[in-house]
Predict the 3D structure of the following.
Amino acid sequence: MGRFKGLDEGTGSYIIPDADWVDIARESAAATKDIPSDFVGVIPDLIKAREFWTAETWAFWFMYVAPIVLRGRFDDKKYYNHMCDLVAIMKTTLQFETTRTELEDLRERVISWVERYEEFYYQYDATRLSTCLLVVHGLLHMVDDILRAGPIWATWTFFMERFCGHLKHALRSRTHPWASLDRRVVYLAHAAHLCAKYDLEEELAPLPRPGKQDGPSSRETIFPGYPLSYLRSCCIPRYIPGKDIRLRVARYIVSLIGGQRTNIGNALPAIMPAWGGVRIGEGGDTIRATVASKIRLGASHERNTSYVRYEIMEEDHAGHDRRTVNYGELQTILECSFTPDPRWKYLGGTTLLLALITPVQTHGIDATSEPVVYKDRLASVVVDLRTVQAVVGRIQSRNTWGIVDRSNGLARTLFTSNEAAEVSEEESEHGI
């Protein structure tokens, strides 16, 4: 690993030792269980199963996994920073909307990146000319291509790779593989002709994946004031919070209406139904709280979707309110109903959905803009469910955890119903 066309480092120091690559491959593959399946299918072992890596896998790994697992691996940090600059360039190109000003800024960043690439790897040595790849030079034309043809996501070729995947799953015969492929293509053509001739797009369209429909399903519940929070099953209707949780709920209520925390805590309802999951409406994420997760029972095959990004208003040193980005593990969602009592002020007669979260120490850094790692978990807090913005993934690397946050609205490939089934087969083959 880490070798290119037999070249050494020259005057640089960028080669990562083979032993480190073994650790990087292991950490990358192990991260699959802590990354929601909507983010990426399976991350196979980078060394032992690289033939299973697709363009989508490489793109996700480079943008979200590499900044974490390669952190601190280079002798000189300039190589790591150079890689992260390319990640930032890639994310800019994947924005759904890009202004002319952003494109001109992108042009300058690309030029700077290519110049440093030549300095670090070509080193202006004719014997290292093979490092000057055509794809690197092509980056210099990328902004002009975007201006002519539109955003990168409008012209990428992931759909062709996915189509080849559909054909691959038709290979059922070892003796007549080409006949199987031909039959699959013919069937797809028949379906396309039926759609075009009889206007059957809706009838022949694949069913939406569970939890991906626009509105709430019959198994999801909406509460007044929470139009985009679709609570899911696995509710504990007679949940009685312990003293510690009640004090945390009371602290949050005091921040809303004032009063003494002890008095508020004593007046809170004794029973607060606990919900195990929520789906955020309008195309948002599906989050499964720890209380409903099988992982706590030892199920190793389940993806962990309990870590979330939430944003709250906090007062800075100057006394001004500012919005802070936080990450943590969603333990459960509490349904707290208030009686129409004057002590509750404007909360009287209403129901609050409260998220019990165990935060991690990220110092308010936004993981969509730079790599964020943490070691420590903080004391649990209670916040309004509406502050929860998205589900996030995690990657363990050495003694730290990195955050994978895709909530910044970048274009990305999505699995349709049929593709989701195929991915599940691949996961089972790899033991995920």
